[in-house]
Structures are given as structure tokens and as C-alpha cells.
Amino acid sequence: MRAAPSLDDVTLLVDAVRAGGVRALARQRGVPRSTVSRGIARLEASLGLTLITRNTVRLQLTEAGEGCFDRLAAAVDEARDAVTELSATGREVRGLLRLTTTPIFADLLLPDLVAAFLERHPKARVEVVPSPDKLDLEAQRVDVAVRAGALPDSDRLAARRLGSVTLGFFASPAYLARRGPVRTLEELLAQDLLVTQRQNAVWLVQTDHGQESLRVTGRVHAENNEFLRHLCERGAGIARLPTYQVSEQVSAGVLVPVLESAWLTADLNLLYLLKGPARAKAFVAVCADVLKDAKLADVLRAAALDSRQATRKRR
Questions:
Q1: What is the β-pairing status of strands 238-242 and 193-195?
Q2: What is the per-residue pLDDT across 104-114, written as a single tens digit (0 to 9) for each?
Q3: CATH number (domain holding residue 303)
């Protein structure tokens, strides 16, 4: 008779996959690799399934592992949310909550989350620090960061996955008619690029060899994604934009997808300090509630649509 699966072992599997491997998770937690490996092996034995392949450097899920991972990850996240909520029970959340995210998500994602947080915690205050750079939470005195992509290798940070987003390249038909098609990353780098980073901009892109960092020089820099989209529509260059933000423009033929093989689908996470203030954990709990009954992509698409409708009314 098999032993019942342990939530601790389920957590090890989920965190190892999200960290990118057994070694990365062991480093984050400050434990031997064997501790993580044994926990995953116990989980496999209790389920009677092989969940990961063990002949690669990077952890990979088997077909059985992929089939159950989302449900296991959801269970872990729900348990963590419950603990976060219980830890805040009986304590009044007050003080200034400092949030940071990239301009891509600041205007669309944060309003709903911040409004819900302020409603639940009337004595709290919020400051949003939009930045295309990945700020050091401790050094910059930031409580929570919303970031896309791989999680940092740090034993000081905790993460809560919100969902995933796809970042793609887009241009107007007029621009492509003038400059020609873009077939490779080398040709992309030769274009007029519209970027959110002032200098040393880095785009993470998908290649045949996995994800790679691409250093780009923008012809236009603006820490406002809506502005870059409008500029892109007017034929000023190629912008990297989340697909939910431009679905209407692509359907109407105003914008055209470019180099789709290099588009990146990345996890979107809330990052906060493990030893951070209670207000940070309270914000994470509110975010979990807001997104509990709705997929992140649906929330973002609705926010983008509301933003465009508001812009039309102002005109």
C-alpha cells in the first residue's frame, strides 16, 4: 500500500520546476540537492508515476508530470495563499506599500489589484514605481514587484505566479512595406526599434536553442507602452508588446505580427521579500483573490479594452 503524497514533497516538485531544476531550488533554499531529489522521488513513489526525467541538466517533466503539474501547482499556491491570509488575521494592515513593475503592466494590471487592496485595507497607502529595470527590492525599499520571466536565484525572495503573458513584435503594414520583411533576429536588430528601456535594453527572445538575451538599441525610448503602440501604428518602427494589448489592432490590420518564432511566453510573478512587511503578504493575498475566478489573460485583455475605450471617449 502506497503512502499518501506529502504536501511538502508536492511543494518541492512545483518549486523545482519553477526554479529551473533541482540544483537551483537547493541553492535557493540552502539545502543539499539530495534533499530535493529525495522529496520528488517520494512523491513519485506515492503516486506510482515518474514525473521528471533525470538524464538532463535542466529538469523536465514527463508526460505524466505535465498532465498533473498545473493541478499540483494550483494546490501549492492555494495552500500558500491560505497561510498568508491566516498570518495576517487579526493584524491591521497599514503604512505605505511600494510596488514596482515594468511599464508594460503598470497601467493595465495594477489598477484592479491596487483598488482591491485599498478597499480591503483602508489604512494602507500605495506608491507605484514603474520601471523597465529590475529594481533590487531591499536596496530600493520596494515591497512587491510584478515581473515576467525567470525567477531570480535568491533565498531572500518568495514568488507567487499570476499566470503567463506572450510578448511579441509588431509593426504597421506601412513600415514593413517601406523597410521589407523581418526574417531573422539579425534583421530585427537593424530595424527602428521602439523600447521601454533608456539604455542597455535587453529583450529575452525564443530561439531554436531556448531563450536568449538580445541587446537592443532603440530609436525611440518611452516608459509608456500605450505611447509606443500608438507610435508603432503610425509606422515609426517595431515595438515589443504583449499580445493582449494589440489583439484588436492585429484583427483590424492596423498592426502586423513580426518574427513570431522569436516571441516569448513568460510567467508573470509577484516577488516579495520573505522577511518583508505584513502589507506585502497582504497584497499578495488580495491578488490571489482577484485572480481566483478569472484567468490573468482575461483580466489583462479586459483592462486593455477599457483603456482603449476610455481613450476614444477623450477624443
A1: parallel
A2: 676 667 888 89
A3: 3.40.190.290
Contacts of 274 (CB under 8 A, 6+ apart): 155, 156, 157, 158
Cβ atoms < 10 Å from Cβ of 286: 22
Distance CA 201, CA 243 (A): 20
Q: Domain boundary at 25, 51, 86, which?
A: 86
pTM of the model: 0.59
Residues 119, 100: one domain? yes
In terms of C-beta density within 10 A (0-12 exposed, 13-18 middle, 19 or more buried), how is residue 253 classed? exposed
pLDDT 10s digits, 88-125: 555 678 888 998 887 667 666 788 889 999 999 998 99
Q: Grid coordinates standing for 270?
A: 509577484
Question: Which has the closest alpha carbon to 39: 17, 62, 55, 57?
Answer: 17
Angle at 301 between CA 297 and CA 306, to 5 degrees: 150
Tell me: do 244 and 143 sit in the same domain: yes
